[in-house]
Amino acid sequence: MNGVKKKQLLNIKNDWLEWLITAVVFFLLSLYIYENRATFIVPKEFEHTVAVQKKSDMTIGEITGNLNISQSFIAKKDDFSRIKIPFGTYNRQLQGSFSFELRDLASGKTIVKRDINLTELQDGLDFNIDFPVIHNAKGQKFKFIIAGGGQQPGNTATIWRSSADNYKQGQLIINGKKFSGDLHFKVMGVELKPLLSKPMFVVVGMIILLLYLLSIFGLRHYKNEIHKAFLVTAIPIGLAFVVIIPPFDQLDELEHYYRAFEVSEGKFVNQNIEQGLGNYLPASLVDTVYDVRYIHQSGYKYSIVKEAFHNKLQPENRIFFRNYASSYAPLIYIPQALGMILGRFLFDSPLLMMYLGRLLNFAAYTAIVYAALRVVPVKKTLFYLLALLPMSMIHAASLSADSIINSTALLFVAYILYLAYGTVEQIRNKHLFITIGIGLFIALAKIVYIPMLLLFFLIPFRKFKDKKDYWKKFFLFIIGCVIPFVIWNLMNVANLSVPDLRANPGVSPRGQVVFVLTHPLYYIKTVLVTILSLGPSELVALVGKVAANYQYAAPSIVIYSFLFLMLLFGLMNDDNDLKIKTRKTDKFIYVIILLAVMLLIYTALYVGYNPVGNSIIWGIQGRYFIPIAVFLFLSISNDQILNKKKDSNLLVFTIIHCCMYALLLSYLVQING
How many CB atoms lie within 10 A of CB 514? Predict the structure, then answer.
């Protein structure tokens, strides 16, 4: 027993810095939880839907003069105290007011009468009209009336409406004339209550802190097995992100949701029909997205999301829909599509399908990264850091195809490094097939990443039977990766030929290509100006400063800890790295791939997103560079800078572990704030 105690004391003495960091961060996390207790235990508004008409494909036009608009509805619940209407302001600074009136149709009595101040309207956003709670309303019919108040053309707003009679329980009347469609509106009940009771808040806080501490012991146990240490931190953090990030709040998750569903039904290519280019998707899918998207700016709307869980898929009722993510190859949506299939089979709920898609996408990311960390023979700590980037983890916990792209890119680089520097004596057919299998994901992901295939040149001649064998396997590798890429793009050519004009209708890809070819020096200058002016912000964005639609910002200490450690372990080498003989040309290969992919990324955005001849390239996002970030840090590796601390892994694991829990708590507070 004494021997065990002595060993424990010795371990604490040797790892005093790690324990000090753990203790300090534990205190800071506890303090952060306590200081933000109001976010969780102070009562806040919880809305529930009483009546809703959410279809809109036109407006009623400017509300001017004495224009009188009325919309009737039937309450589905007993209590309500809010009507939400999205007004269109034409992006004007408006003055004046509309009048609003709410009537009980059974008695004809006016229940509410008030003015709507036009200066308070925000274009396209719901405007809340609040009034005292109306009780015992279930099954009763009501009508609200909006009158123009003498507003002049050019200084007024409008309201959206549907052209078809989607809401059978109500009637739209404008100046005494009945219309077949209905206004876009929501009638809401509002309840004030805390997110968590005080005892439950204490329990949840203690669970997070206990998990943080227990994981530290797991990291100590696996300090020499980096792939297992990755799981200790990644699994609880990733699963928490899967659940806590509101639906479709993550970057482009909406488009990936539709694409994953298409793949789950075997619809790999958009149909080109009279209505345009797209696929028929269940209307219930689009309705569910509408119910829960863009509703969380002032805190997670749990009650609204809870209502959306009850939506049924109804696959027979479909609408034609153009999804721009349909240009992505179906291969990179396998995990998400499996989640969709499982959700369809078990629950028949579009929202539960989304969460299962997230879960399987995260599971795939974790498994692929685990394999990469096991196989990579050099710079393991660098790969570990890249795998746990806040941006990488946020994508992994979403439906984003970037999750599979980022993880397979890490695995591809790791496996090539293993073939080049690892214990493999001779490259055999099994190695070639595995390399092709991983390289397929790189080639099919996005055309801009194809130069990564040149990493094959890292494998030295001596690992092949002879030069003939080398070139034979190289060409088989290129053919095996490129032919599926060519086949997919030939199948998808109609989709690729239609430009994405959502951001800038004036974009002309053909005109931009002609401009670049005829003004090459101007274009080179444009790229350099973009890198110099936007490069630093893109580097911070790569780590994950902001990783969601609502700008949930990661703490600066987290971002700069990752940047510092990646730079440090990119420059520095340990004994294992020095045992491997690298060639002088290796860094040249890294730099060529890095520059080639960067140029393709900038060119793709210039051609597809920017007006012809623009002097700077807008639309570049740091996350696009995650698959090639490893090349930047590998290229700056310096054999003269040595890691003399033999047991530095545990220190790095501890720092990153602390960063990830700080990130998790920060997101929890921001999402519910």
Answer: 12
